[in-house]
Design goal:
By secondary structure, the protein is of the alpha/beta class. It has helices spanning 2-16, 19-36, 38-49, 58-82, 85-91, 98-104, 120-129, 144-155, 167-176, 208-216, 251-275; strands at 92-93, 110-114, 134-138, 160-163, 180-184, 194-198, 201-205, 220-228, 232-237. The chain has one domain.
Length: 297
């Protein structure tokens, strides 16, 4: 039911409301979501307890997560019609775009690894708008109208979307053609993840970015589209993480190389979430272990 509310809200904002009014309405609806969705509120609170130590400061931060989710929806549903070059120049700072250009000159493509923080959807569309050939992996929504709407918003500005269950072949093709592949790396949607330490707890992370990198030689570039103030953003691009020049033939050694890559990009994600916890839009309990069980046990 919530997804249908999202669908209707997005259509209404795009077609009828100015931006400032859309933001206000989104915050009001986000507060309603915060007060009445006990499950989501508890999940966000439990996640944030691992990020900040001051227990008394958690609740305002939990509420800010809900409000940032509302803002994210407004921007997502408006970007197909309202995102243009003027918006990028006015609202977005991109100090390290040359990192992507430098990596693409190497001819092996680039794996852009991000997380559910800030407005990752808007960041991907902006890169596409700037002329980068970008393929994004997206989890399909169960409701067809919602899924169609989300993909229409993404593809209107040139971003290509591939569903998770069809992603392996399409991603390998894109990297072999020296293109960009965007992957959300902070949530594992399969049963084939790897458990790593994250914020001093155990979390199952997707192996896909590391496997693509080892198979194609494409470096992994951590990238995050972070909200700065009310409606301005920084596109933060980290230095590339390269796979080893020689890939081991032994399966055990290959797994070790994979784990080394994963720990590097997971550390970048952890740093970003610690810095901007109120923008981590994770509404499912993140941890896989019993709360009393220490990491590494």
């Amino acid at each position: 039911m919530f997804k249908y509310w999202v669908y209707l809200f997005g259509q209404f904002c795009v077609n009828h409301l100015p931006l400032a009014v859309s933001y206000r309405l989104a915050e009001w609806l986000s507060d309603i979501h915060y007060f009445f969705s006990f499950r989501d509120r508890r999940a966000v609170r439990d996640n944030l307890r691992q990020v900040i130590s001051e227990t008394e400061k958690i609740e305002p931060l939990v509420r800010e997560v809900f409000r940032n989710f509302g803002r994210y929806l407004v921007e997502f549903f408006r970007m197909a019609k309202h995102l243009d070059d003027h918006y990028i120049q006015e609202k977005v700072s991109i100090p390290n775009l040359g990192i992507i250009d430098r990596v693409l000159k190497e001819g092996k493509g680039v794996i852009l690894l991000t997380a559910h923080i800030g407005n990752w959807e808007l960041g991907g569309v902006i890169l596409s708008r700037l002329g980068y050939s970008l393929l994004a992996i997206a989890l399909s929504h169960k409701e067809r109208p919602v899924n169609n709407l989300f993909n229409q918003q993404r593809e209107a500005q040139g971003l290509r979307v591939v569903p998770l269950h069809l992603s392996i072949r399409k991603c390998l093709e894109a990297l072999n053609q020296n293109q960009c592949v965007a992957i959300l790396g902070d949530r594992n949607f399969t049963s084939n993840g790897e458990e790593l330490n994250f914020l001093e707890r155990r979390v199952s992370f997707p192996k896909g970015p590391a496997l693509f990198s080892l198979r194609t030689g494409a470096p992994i570039v951590p990238i995050f589209f972070i909200r700065k103030g009310f409606d301005r953003f920084d596109l933060i691009i980290e230095e590339p993480i390269y796979p080893p020049q020689t890939i081991e033939s032994d399966l055990i050694r290959q797994n070790e190389q994979q784990s080394v890559l994963m720990r590097q990009y997971v550390a970048c994600t952890e740093k970003m979430i610690r810095t901007y916890p109120g923008q981590w839009l994770m509404f499912r309990r993140f941890w896989i272990e019993n709360p009393e069980r220490p990491a590494g046990s």
